[in-house]
Write a structure and sequence with these properties.
Blueprint: E1 2-7, H1 12-16, E2 23-27, E3 30-31, H2 35-41, E4 46-52, E5 58-64, E6 73-75, H3 110-116, H4 127-135, E7 141-144, H5 150-157, H6 165-173, E8 179-185, H7 192-205, E9 209-216, H8 233-254, E10 259-261, H9 263-269, H10 291-300, E11 313-319, H11 320-337, E12 340-346, H12 363-370, E13 378-382, H13 398-404, E14 408-412, H14 416-424
Parallel strand pairs: 7-8, 8-9, 9-10, 11-12, 11-13, 13-14
Antiparallel strand pairs: 1-2, 1-6, 2-3, 2-4, 4-5
Helix pairs in contact: 7-8, 8-9, 10-11
The protein binds iron/sulfur cluster (SF4).
Iron/sulfur cluster binds next to loops.
Amino acid sequence: MIRVTAVHPGSVADELGLREGTELLSVNGRELDDFLDWEFLTAEEQILLHVRQPDGEEIEFDIERPLGEPLGVALEPPRIRRCANRCDFCFVDGLPDGLRDVLYIRDDDYRLSFRYGNFATLTNLKSRDVQRIIDYRLSPLYVSVHATDPSIRRYLLRNPTAPDIVAQLREFAAHGIEFHTQIVMSPGVNDGLVLRETLDTLYRFGPAILDCAVVPVGLTEFSKHHLVREPTAEECRAAIALVEEQADIARRERGTSWALGADELYLRAGVELPPAEIYGDFEQVENGVGSIRWLQQRIGRLDSGSLGWRGQRVGVVTGTAMAQLMPQVLELLAGVTGAVFDLIPVVNSLFGPSVTTAGLLPGAAILEAVRSRRDLDLVLLPSESLNDNELFIDSMSLTQLQTSSPVEARPSKDFADVIAESVEV
Ligand code: SF4
């Protein structure tokens, strides 16, 4: 059963009388568990829908509609699948106490991997899940491989029963499922020869593995530092050498880079980022792979002729990691818009200064950094530091921050979004 949370006015669901609280029980006699069942089973032109209305009345609707026309319901979010692992570098272990309960959930959910590109390990799949992935063709999936050697992977995941990932990928690939993969590199465990072996095994696997990103392990001051550490600059340079060696082979043989290093890997290594071309379609940009080149590309394509930013002073809030790479983006942006940009790197007051990513910046630290900036006309905030409900990780809301900020503050993913909004206005 799935509960309806909203019905779009004028939609098929609205005409049928579905409303908030309606329980969707089955489609064509098949019970519904989650949004995947709903989407795949209602994809037919004609369906038999069985519902229970909030007053308890059960109704069956025989629905015929043009193919592709949505029924028009919003569904309650699925119950998240819990993770079966206990990685030493787990983000959840690195959280301070006192945050929202939901942040302490270790999720590892193939459904969210398919829908949102969240990385999953596939270690908690039941046979029914395997069948659903195949039947519903959930492709591509985003998979955390870390190491193809089963014993090293089990060690990294702290899961002695983790199945052999290569065998799992092989089974899915035989049914047409493709994968974006990542290796979170933990020095002394899956770097060096293990990294080389993992990259090689995944590459030789064939075209079902679309790419493989190497991301250095990131810790906070609350992480298990007695068990895991962040890589040194030298270790990052060694990893980049392996990634680029594999990418050279891939470009010669397949015309794509295939192996990619996260921006953070280059940053920690003190090595210049590769050019935009090597990232292809930027498929792992949400994973911090190619973010800077992607931003530059987006800005380079902007036509901001009608934007009234010329001569304005715009503050750009970011984490201390991006702050090192951002000047090359802002220089380009200044040329396109005629505005003056002030970078505002914010130190993470909640997780400690070692956490440098913009995505984990608490609202309180951002507010502190902009509170006295009356010299600015506008402040751009990193949108990745907000969740879907516009809350920062410390539960400050965007509205709270905007109300307390001395100048207009707007979230932005890539600058182009704010510029587009401004042009529309
Ligand atoms: S797979 Fe590892 S890092 Fe991810 S949630 Fe589970 S324990 Fe944490």
